[in-house]
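Notes from hallway chat w/ T.B., transcribed later so I don't forget. T.B. wanted the structure written out for a chain they're using in a teaching module, and asked if we could keep both sequence and structure tokens in one place. Agreed to drop them here.
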Amino acid sequence: MSAELEKGLYSKLSGASPQTLAAGRVYPILPQGVTFPAIRYQRIDTQRRLALDSTVGVTSATVQVDCMAESYSEAKTLADSVRTLLHGYSGAWGTLTARLVSLESENDFYEQDGDRVTHWVTHRYMIWTNMD
């Protein structure tokens, strides 16, 4: 993922309502001993579109956003906040322009490690930008 695309994603996730719910805990890699709720994100793939003789100036990236919490309801509330923020968005995306952000899939997971239970909702978004 272009550093600019990742900066735009971080900016979106660390602002507005997800920031309030996750208290600024937005990470590409979760730190050890992280406090929940938190948001984790990563790029899954990037596709750069070509015409016959050049790039077309449009790139699509699939990103995964995990909304993580100690309770199922808290994870779902955070995920709903992220979905409301990102799904259908178009406009400024850091130094790029998001032509469209589309939620492609949503899954629920949980993990138990001793007494600690972690719930998370995974969203996969397709982000179309003007990045080459």
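Follow-up for T.B.: Strands lie at 26-27, 38-50, 55-69, 91-93, 96-113, 116-129. Might be a good example for the class.
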